[in-house]
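User: Sequence recovery, please. Input:
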């Protein structure tokens, strides 16, 4: 024991050096383990962050594709809804042409208004029926409510219609109540109002009377409603008459094209209808 103690005393410096080296090695070991752990932890966090970003980008890409798919689906559904609504409106408008059981539409061509040009003086309608369906110029166009106009130009599949609300449109009309006669005309302005020209102030016309086409028309069948009298103002020789048109042109979608009216032979008065040898008692009109 004494020898061991003397050995420690003699070599204490070496023993302390060994002790310090051991402690240093342990400290270095512990520090290296901590650095590795920290490095591993850092790599783990970075990897997790990168993986999270990748998952987020993938989700965003998938979400964008899903949104595009849903957008296309919604567009298709909206298109189908609009198409079905249009078909329903067209079906209702077409059915309305035959709703009036008192109106015989046999022999008429059903056509849809596909375009219109509205202005203060010159209005034109375009319908989807032409030569391929037997449409010809000067055919009357109407609805069960009243006269629309007449065909003025025809192609193979379409036709242009000059409506009542055109300044060049004229047609002879007669009152269904008093048989007063005149000429229907439109001088521009409101599309629901027209006027009756050349009706003498001696005519027994009254407000509220319905005006119909006469058999004198070269294109329209007789008896088609054109409107009702809403105002009568006497002038020097003729009345100034306003009528409310029977057809609402702002909502017009389907029309009927009447068959061509057969030309009727009209008698022509000779220049001299008085018997020879007798004086004429008829004064010429200046």
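Assistant: Recovered sequence (286 residues):
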């Amino acid at each position: 024991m004494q020898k061991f103690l003397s050995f420690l005393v003699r070599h204490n410096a070496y023993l302390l050096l060994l002790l310090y080296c051991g402690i240093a090695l342990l400290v270095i070991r512990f520090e290296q383990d901590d650095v590795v752990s920290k490095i591993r932890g850092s790599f783990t966090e970075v990897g997790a962050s990168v993986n999270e970003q990748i998952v987020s980008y993938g989700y965003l890409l998938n979400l964008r594709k899903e949104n595009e798919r849903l957008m296309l689906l919604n567009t298709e559904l909206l298109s189908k809804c609009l198409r079905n609504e249009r078909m329903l409106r067209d079906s209702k408008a077409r059915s309305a042409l035959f709703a009036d059981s008192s109106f015989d539409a046999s022999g008429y061509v059903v056509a849809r208004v596909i375009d219109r040009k509205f202005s203060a003086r010159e209005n034109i309608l375009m319908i989807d029926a032409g030569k391929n369906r037997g449409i010809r110029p000067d055919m009357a166009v109407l609805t069960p409510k009243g006269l629309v106009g007449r065909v003025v130009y025809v192609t193979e599949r379409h036709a242009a219609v000059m409506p009542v609300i055109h300044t060049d449109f004229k047609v002879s009309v007669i009152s269904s109540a008093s048989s007063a006669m005149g000429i229907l005309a439109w001088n521009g302005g409101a599309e629901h109002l027209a006027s009756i020209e050349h009706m003498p102030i001696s005519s027994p016309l009254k407000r509220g009377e319905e005006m119909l086409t006469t058999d004198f028309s070269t294109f329209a069948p007789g008896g088609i409603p054109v409107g009702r009298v809403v105002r009568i103002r006497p002038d020097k020789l003729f009345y100034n008459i306003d009528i409310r048109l029977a057809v609402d042109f702002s909502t017009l979608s389907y029309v009927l094209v009447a068959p061509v009216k057969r030309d009727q032979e009209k008698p022509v008065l000779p220049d001299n209808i008085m018997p020879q040898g007798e004086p004429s008692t008829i004064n010429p009109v200046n």
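The longest helix spans residues 12-96.
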